[in-house]
Amino acid sequence: MTFNAWRGGRATVALLLAVFLVGLGPRLYSALLVGWGWDGPGTFNLVNFDEGGSCRAALEGFDYSTFVGRQTIAIADLLGAGPPAGVAGDEMAVRGYCHSPEHIRVARVYSAITGALTPVLLALAAFCLLPGRPAVGLTAAALLALSGFHISESHSGTVDAPSVFFIYLFITVAIAACTRRPRWLWAAPPLLVAAVWAKYWVFAAFALAAALPARLGETVTRGWGKGRFCAAVLALVVAFGCLSNTDFPRSWTPLLALCYLTVPWRRIAPGMIPLWMLGPWLGLLLLQSGWVAGYTMGDLEGRFGSSYGAIGWHKWPRNALNVPLVIMVGLGLPAALCIPAGIRALLRQGGPWRPWLCLLPVVVFLLFMLVPAPVTYYRHYLALIPAAALLAAMGYWSWLGERGRRWLLPFLLWPALLAWDVESDYHNDPRIELRQWYQSARPQRLLFSYYVQPPRLQGVAQGLFRESYARADGGVLRQAQYLLLSENWYDTAFANELNGPLTHDLQRLVKTSPFNADFYRRALAGEIDYLAPERVIAVENFMPELLLHKRWYGTFQLFVGDLHIFRVAGR
User: Fold this and answer.
1) Which parts of the chain span the membrane according to its record (predicted)?
2) Range of 533's domain?
3) Per-residue pLDDT tens digits for 259-301
4) Counting C-beta atoms within 10 Å of the first and last residue's C-beta, which end of the chain has fewer, N or C?
């Protein structure tokens, strides 16, 4: 099926509409229900504290991208729910508006719609890349529409799902321009700006490689075999990863030598020799920039103790593990297992390669997240999921061929069940059950960690727990009757998406301190004599991906996790 044939294919248009509606349903449902009604009809509790960040930036109350926030504020204005006059610049007032249910509802619906449109864009891109195989595009779109991870990011009023939408809108238009619609190139620059501005995703600029002259590409690749070229890229990535690591020694000469050893100097074009000679040095100079160093290395200290750079060498296994974990949970185990076959099918099909170069930003981003990335919250990997869905669909159909029609529904049933399990975490949030415990226990004095969000009840003295309260034999902490700990905060003491699997060295943990981490570990192990475990309200899952993740890495969600309630013994 060519791009022109797609335009006239009513059945395909109907299937794309079905994909959009299937994707929109759960996203919109959760956007309108999650957080509402916890403390009675009409009440609202913010679940994801990253929501509204772009709105806050647009109103000069936060340092972040303003692109999405300007749009959600404009929509809210049209609906009569805009910000109060004179609120701009007042940080607390801006936070109050951007976190209000009126604005969050608009931001979430905006995110849900852009999230549901992204699978459609993925299908259109696949139709252009694989014109004779429409089943691949439709399968990839269905996988993305049913992705529980993508759904969970699309029902939140953050920039993550809209950012991925604008990234793939730009990529899709660029692919269409390379294949069937050269005139669409005029739309590429403004769409590139949107793709970068939505979340500072600078990797989108690498798609411009598709616009370079073919002769230049031939000159650059002359003398390189596939294996040699991959080895050179790997050497550059490893060198860049080492040089951007806070634990790396100052001697960088061996790394530069490693890069030079991979270059086939006798076979490459003479004009490329200066570039390959200067390339590693230019990268080294680039790392001296404070902005680049911060983006790739992270700081050693931050607001909550250690910062992202403190992880040091432990960053390597963390980054290498996070990528497959996110893809496995994002698409489901069966789809993830099809990705190697999809890569093989892509390499075997041959050219033309220019349209596929439009996906180069995703490849560079993957390499960045695999090696040097200092900040690795799962939501940061979201841009990888559509491309992974495309490779999974390619692998599925190349492996099964015509037999794929018979097994397609069971294949898609798995991610649908996984999506149900992921979304159930939000609709069965432990903080809802916490309200029932309040009614039965009638606490009088309690302390709670970040993100617990207990109900505000008259006559109950409660406050935010600071780890310093546990110092000096817990003198301050013992004045409370109960201590409530949220997994989303104490997981800084354990293996998780930021710490990775190596957690034996408390100095290497992210967003904590050795004292804080030790306190949380001992408290949850029942080793603190004045803390008696009272109750655990846990996140319950049934799909193997989430069960395995919870066993080794904790709850997959960032802002929904187990709650541990301790009774505090007085002096």
Assistant:
1) 109-130, 135-151, 163-179, 191-212, 224-243, 275-297, 323-343, 355-375, 381-400
2) 428-568
3) 788 888 888 888 888 888 887 777 777 777 777 777 788 888 8
4) C
